[in-house]
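Task: sequence design from structure.
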C-alpha cells in the first residue's frame, strides 16, 4: 500500500513538472508577442542568451565539466541547426498568428519525431503510428488553412516548419543522450550556437528597443529556461510514453492567455484541428503505454 502511494506521488510529481513546463512555454510565446514589432531573429537571440547563461550557471554550480565527445559533434551541430531554425520559425509564427495556433503547430514536433526516428535511429514505424502521423498532419492543415486568399497561410506554413525542425531537434537530443552527452551540455552548445548564428543578423539589422520591450524579451528568456528545466526534470524521472500527452496542456494555456490578453478567439477550423491533433496525441499516448517500445521524445 505504501509503495503504491509513493508511486502515485512520483507520477503526480512528473505530471506537475511537465504541466509547469507547458505553462512556461505558453508564457514564453505570450511575452514574445508582447515584445512588439521586433525582428524574430532579435527575439530568438535574447531567448537563447538567457538560456545559455542559465545553463552555464547550473553547470558551474554543479561543478560539472563540459565534455563533448568527438563522435557527437556532428549530432550536436545538427541538433543546434534544427533547434535554431525551429525557434525562429515559431517566433515568426507567434508574431503573425494567434498564440494558440502557433503553439499547436509547434506541438506537431512529436509526430515528426516519429518520422525522423525512422530515418535517423532506425526505429520501426507501425501502421498505427503511420495513421496517427497522417491524421495529425491533416489536423495541422485545418490550423494552417492553405488558401491563396488566406493571409495567415505563409505564417502558418512557417510555423509548421518550426514543428518539423523541432521534431528533428528532439530526435537528435535522444541520439545524443544515448551517446552519453549530458543534457546541460546539449543546452549550452545549442544556446551558444544559436546566439553566434543570430548575432550577425542582430548587428546588421538591430532594432532599438524600449525598456519595456527588453523586459518582455528577458521574461520570455526566463520563461523558456524555466520550461526547459521543468521538462528536463520530467523526462529524467519518467519515460516519454507516460507523460508526453500532458505537454499538450500548453494549448489550453495558450488559448486562455491569448483570449485574456489579446481577446483572441480561434475559428472553428482551428478548434477542429486542435481536437484532431490532441485526440491522436492521446491515442499515441495510450498506444505507447500498451507497447513495450519506447516512445518518441516530446516537448
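Answer:
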Amino acid at each position: 500500500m505504501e509503495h503504491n502511494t509513493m508511486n502515485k506521488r512520483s507520477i503526480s510529481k512528473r505530471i506537475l513538472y511537465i504541466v509547469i513546463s507547458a505553462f512556461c512555454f505558453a508564457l514564453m510565446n505570450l511575452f514574445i508577442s508582447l515584445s512588439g514589432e521586433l525582428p524574430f531573429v532579435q527575439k530568438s537571440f535574447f531567448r537563447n542568451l538567457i538560456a545559455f547563461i542559465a545553463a552555464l550557471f547550473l553547470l558551474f554550480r554543479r561543478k560539472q565539466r563540459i565534455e563533448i565527445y568527438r563522435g557527437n559533434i556532428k549530432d550536436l551541430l545538427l541538433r543546434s541547426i534544427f533547434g535554431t531554425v525551429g525557434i525562429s520559425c515559431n517566433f515568426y509564427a507567434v508574431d503573425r498568428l494567434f498564440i494558440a495556433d502557433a503553439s499547436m503547430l509547434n506541438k506537431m514536433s512529436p509526430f515528426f519525431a516519429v518520422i525522423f526516428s525512422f530515418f535517423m535511429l532506425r526505429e520501426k514505424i507501425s501502421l498505427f503510428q503511420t495513421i496517427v502521423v497522417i491524421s495529425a498532419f491533416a489536423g495541422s492543415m485545418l490550423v494552417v488553412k492553405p488558401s491563396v486568399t488566406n493571409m495567415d497561410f505563409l505564417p502558418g506554413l512557417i510555423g509548421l516548419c518550426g514543428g518539423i525542425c523541432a521534431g528533428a531537434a528532439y530526435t537528435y537530443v535522444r541520439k545524443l543522450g544515448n551517446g552519453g552527452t549530458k543534457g546541460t551540455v546539449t543546452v549550452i552548445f545549442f544556446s551558444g550556437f544559436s546566439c553566434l548564428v543570430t548575432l550577425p543578423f542582430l548587428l546588421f539589422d538591430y532594432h532599438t528597443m524600449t525598456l519595456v520591450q527588453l523586459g518582455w524579451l528577458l521574461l520570455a528568456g526566463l520563461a523558456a529556461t524555466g520550461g526547459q528545466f521543468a521538462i528536463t526534470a520530467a523526462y529524467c524521472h519518467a519515460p516519454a510514453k507516460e507523460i508526453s500527452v500532458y505537454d499538450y496542456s500548453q494549448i489550453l494555456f495558450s488559448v486562455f492567455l491569448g483570449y485574456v490578453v489579446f481577446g483572441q478567439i480561434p475559428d472553428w477550423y482551428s478548434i477542429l484541428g486542435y481536437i484532431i491533433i490532441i485526440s491522436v496525441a492521446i491515442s499515441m499516448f495510450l498506444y505507447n503505454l500498451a507497447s513495450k517500445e519506447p516512445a518518441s521524445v516530446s516537448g
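The chain has twelve helices and no strands.
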